[in-house]
Every structure is written in structure tokens, then in C-alpha cells.
Specification:
The chain is an all-alpha fold. It has 2 domains: 338 residues, Growth Hormone, Chain: A; 86 residues, Winged helix-like DNA-binding domain superfamily/Winged helix DNA-binding domain (Arc Repressor Mutant, subunit A, Orthogonal Bundle), CATH 1.10.10. It starts with a helix and ends with a helix. This is HTH luxR-type domain-containing protein. It comes from Raoultibacter timonensis. InterPro entries: MFS_trans_sf, Sig_transdc_resp-reg_C-effctor, Tscrpt_reg_LuxR_C, WH-like_DNA-bd_sf.
């Protein structure tokens, strides 16, 4: 229990720091103008590169500590650059450099914390993941109320707490397997990992594009100021994480089923919110963000579940899963920026809604087909079970008939055993191998059985047994 609490606190502190750089409300409070899209490109590009490097470095047995040090140094540098830019007004170059350093920090440290979450056990990691995300959302809400300088100091404190928690857990995590990137026991369990993760990853990537595009639209034309968007999204994240925790408690670990709930949430927003035009845009962004958050949590949970038991495997896989959606956000933001010429953001919003509807239709069709296939598979399994029960019952009745005929006609025990095989249509070679008899001995026993039962061929014997069986 104490280990789980330390994991929740440490992960929440680091994730809160990462969220500060992901949502960057502070960007609009700086004493100089900065291109938010360019900052986002630097942040996510460095994050993806760092995640790839982590996945490669984790093939080495002693890479955890160097990766943790590099990630901590990245975040420390990002906070120092941001503080210097705020104090001196030195310019946007420092902000972009801070984004690069923050991307390195998140791309390296977040996967390591997924490893720590996986070490809490198959029953507890869902609670730890949800509780850590929830606590980070609450922390981020509190940080949004702080001025930039105080926010930077609080992030430094959170980073230090996270590092202490990670080091404490590192000292007591000696029970996790380190035998290769995949140990042999886990290979069999992970054969379907890519198939299991494909749907949530594709789904969250598509939602990332939609989310990035709508975020740009609302930032310029929406009813809510850009500087408040992070607060709104964090509030959405808190509600989403609370729902995730409830699902972990009552959903019996079927994390992939949450994707269907995401579809329902977004479809509800797309269908009903046009009737409320004044708040439609912001409500749509919030609904897409909620679906995106759930899909992220599902992909994280599936990665942890499928890769648990090997710290190097889970870090490499988690790095890929964590970085995968980030290019989608940048792509969506870029599309919205390029398409929405001359402030035609309504067109961009309409295009995104149309793409969302098309996607929902396609996924709905695939979901229905999957349900139909599963229903057909269940029907086939049920039919096979019925056939197996019928065959077993028929064999039992035939065996009973053989025993009654053998007793009535004075067959020996050996002849009775052979009668069972002959009634199944077995040939002499099979009977000889099954009873460890020579071919001549089988023929001798067969003649004796035919004589006692007054039959002249195997088919007559089979018919006699079938007539005697109480079918």
C-alpha cells in the first residue's frame, strides 16, 4: 500500500509538470509574443525523439538511472530557461528551447513512471494510473492560478518530489524481471500486443488531430479566452479520470471497452450540441478532449497490462505509446492554421466535424461487424460444444451396448476391449498398436468375436452394436 501511494504521488507530481508544458497557458502571460504552434512543434518533436531514444536505450540493463538523470536535467533546464525568459524578457528563442528541454524530460521520465506503475501489480496498476492522473489534474488546476514565476518554482518543487519518489522506489524494485527486453514467459502473453493496442492507438491519434484542430479554432474564435483553455481542459481531465477510476473498480479490467464509451460521448456532442449554437464550439472541444483523455488512459493501461513483468520491455513500449499521439496534435493544429485562411475558422470547424462523423460511421460499421463476428464465433463454439456432447453421449451408449453384448455372448476381457474398437470401425493396424498385439493375434481375436456374436464382417458387427445401443 505504501509503495502504491509513493507511486501515485511521484507520478502525479511529474505529470503535473508535464501538463504545464503541454497546455502552456503561461505562454500568453509572457512579456513578449511567442508563436504557440512553433512552440508546440519543438515540444512534441523533441518528445518523440526522446521516446525513440529511450526505447533503444532500454535494451541495456543499466539504462534506467541515466535516463532518469537525463529527463530530470531536461525539465530542470526547461524551467531555468522559462524563468530566465520571464525575468529578462529575452525573447521567444528561450521559450522554444524550453519546449525542447521539456519534451526531452517528458519523453524520458513518463515512460519510466509507467514502469513504476506496472510494478504495483496486475490488480493495482489501474487504480494507480487513474489516481495519479487525477491528482496531477488537481495540482495543475492549482498551478493555473499562480503567476508565471510562482508556477515555475512550484514545478521545480514537484520535480524534486517526483525524483525523490522515483529514487525511493528504485531501491526496492529488485523483484522485477530484467532478463532481456522480453522474458520467455512473457513472450507468449504478448503475442497479441500490437493487435490489442492498434485500435486505441489509431483512435487516439485521430482524436489528437481533431483535438489539435479544434483547439486552434477555439483559441481564435471561441467564446473562452485562450489563457483559460488549460483550466477548462484540466477540469475535463479531472472528471474523466474520476470516471476512469470508477470503471477500473466496476469494469473488470476491460479497458478496451472504454473506447466504445468514447464514441458515445463524442457522438452525443456532434449530434446534440448544434442545437445550442452559442456554446457548440467549446462544448465540442471539451467532448473531444474527454474522449482523447479516456483513449490515452486506455492505451496506457493496455500497454502496462500487456508489458508488465519486465521493466525494460514496459519502458520501451510505454515510450512508444506515450509519444504516438503527439504528432497528431501538431498535425491537427497545422491543418487548422493552414485551412482557416482569412479567419474562416467556421469552415475548419465544419470540416473537423464532418471528418469526425465520417470516422464515427466507419468505426461504428467496424464495431457492428466485430460484434457480428463475435456472435457468429459464439454460435460456432456453441454448436461445436453440442456436437462434442452428442458424440461423447453416443460413444458412451455404444460402449454400454458393447459391454452388454460381451456379457451376453461370453466374450473375454480382451475380446471385449477389441469389440469396443471394432464397433468404432478401427482397422487391424490401429487395434494392434492400441492393444500392443501382432496382426495375426488381432485376426485371431476378431474371428473369435465374429463367431460368438454370429456375424461375418465388421459392418455386421457395427450394425449389431448400433441396434443394441439405446439411442
Amino acid at each position: 500500500m505504501r509503495r502504491a501511494i509513493v507511486t501515485v504521488v511521484g507520478f502525479a507530481c511529474l505529470y503535473a509538470v508535464a501538463t504545464v508544458f503541454f497546455y502552456y497557458d503561461w505562454l500568453y502571460e509572457l512579456p513578449f509574443e511567442t508563436d504557440a504552434f512553433l512552440y508546440e512543434v519543438f515540444l512534441n518533436a523533441s518528445l518523440c525523439i526522446a521516446a525513440v531514444v529511450v526505447a533503444l536505450l532500454m535494451r541495456s540493463a543499466d539504462a534506467v538511472k541515466p535516463i532518469a538523470y537525463a529527463g530530470t536535467a531536461g525539465y530542470a533546464a526547461a524551467l531555468a530557461l522559462l524563468f530566465f525568459a520571464w525575468q529578462t524578457g529575452a525573447g521567444e528563442a528561450l521559450v522554444y528551447a524550453a519546449g525542447v528541454c521539456a519534451g526531452i524530460g517528458s519523453g524520458t521520465l513518463i515512460p519510466l513512471w509507467f514502469m513504476r506503475i506496472g510494478e504495483t501489480g496486475s490488480r493495482g496498476f489501474g487504480y494507480v494510473l487513474g489516481a495519479g492522473s487525477l491528482l496531477s489534474g488537481v495540482t495543475m488546476l492549482a498551478e493555473n492560478a499562480l503567476p508565471v514565476a510562482s508556477m515555475i518554482v512550484s514545478c521545480a518543487v514537484l520535480l524534486a518530489v517526483s525524483l525523490v519518489a522515483f529514487a525511493r522506489l528504485e531501491r526496492v524494485s529488485s523483484r522485477v524481471s530484467d532478463e532481456g527486453i522480453f522474458d520467455q514467459r512473457a513472450v507468449e502473453r504478448r503475442k497479441g500486443i500490437f493487435a490489442s493496442l492498434a485500435a486505441p492507438l489509431v483512435y487516439v491519434f485521430f482524436l489528437s488531430i481533431i483535438y489539435g484542430a479544434l483547439d486552434v479554432v477555439m483559441a481564435v474564435s471561441g467564446p473562452v479566452p485562450t489563457s483559460d483553455s488549460g483550466t477548462i481542459f484540466q477540469g475535463t481531465s479531472i472528471v474523466t479520470n474520476m470516471f476512469f477510476l470508477l470503471y477500473v473498480r466496476f469494469g473488470r479490467g476491460r479497458y478496451a471497452s472504454l473506447l466504445n464509451i468514447c464514441l458515445g460521448i463524442i457522438a452525443t456532442g456532434l449530434i446534440f450540441f448544434p442545437f445550442f449554437p452559442s456554446g457548440y464550439g467549446m462544448a465540442l472541444v471539451v467532448f473531444v478532449h474527454a474522449g482523447w483523455e479516456i483513449a490515452l488512459l486506455v492505451s496506457y493501461a493496455l500497454a502496462i497490462e500487456l508489458l508488465s513483468g519486465n521493466r525494460r520491455g514496459i519502458v520501451a513500449g510505454a515510450a512508444a505509446v506515450f509519444a504516438f499521439p503527439r504528432p497528431g496534435v501538431v498535425l491537427g493544429s497545422g491543418i487548422a492554421t493552414l485551412v482557416a485562411v482569412d479567419n474562416q475558422f467556421a469552415f475548419t470547424q465544419l470540416a473537423m466535424v464532418a471528418c469526425s462523423l465520417l470516422y464515427l460511421i466507419v468505426v461504428g460499421v467496424l464495431f457492428i461487424r466485430t460484434r457480428e463476428k463475435r456472435a457468429a464465433d459464439r454460435a460456432i463454439r456453441k454448436r461445436d460444444e453440442i456436437i462434442d456432447r452428442y458424440i461423447k453421449a453416443r460413444d458412451d451408449l455404444r460402449s454400454l451396448a458393447c459391454d452388454e453384448l460381451a456379457q451376453a455372448h461370453g466374450l473375454t476381457k480382451r475380446e471385449t476391449e477389441m469389440l469396443h474398437l471394432l464397433s468404432q470401425g478401427r482397422d487391424a493396424a490401429y487395434i494392434g498398436e492400441a492393444m500392443f498385439l501382432s496382426r495375426n493375434t488381432v485376426k485371431s481375436y476378431s474371428k473369435s468375436i465374429y463367431a460368438k456374436l454370429d456375424v461375418h464382417s465388421k459392418q455386421e458387427l457395427i450394425d449389431l452394436v448400433n441396434d443394441a445401443a439405446p439411442y
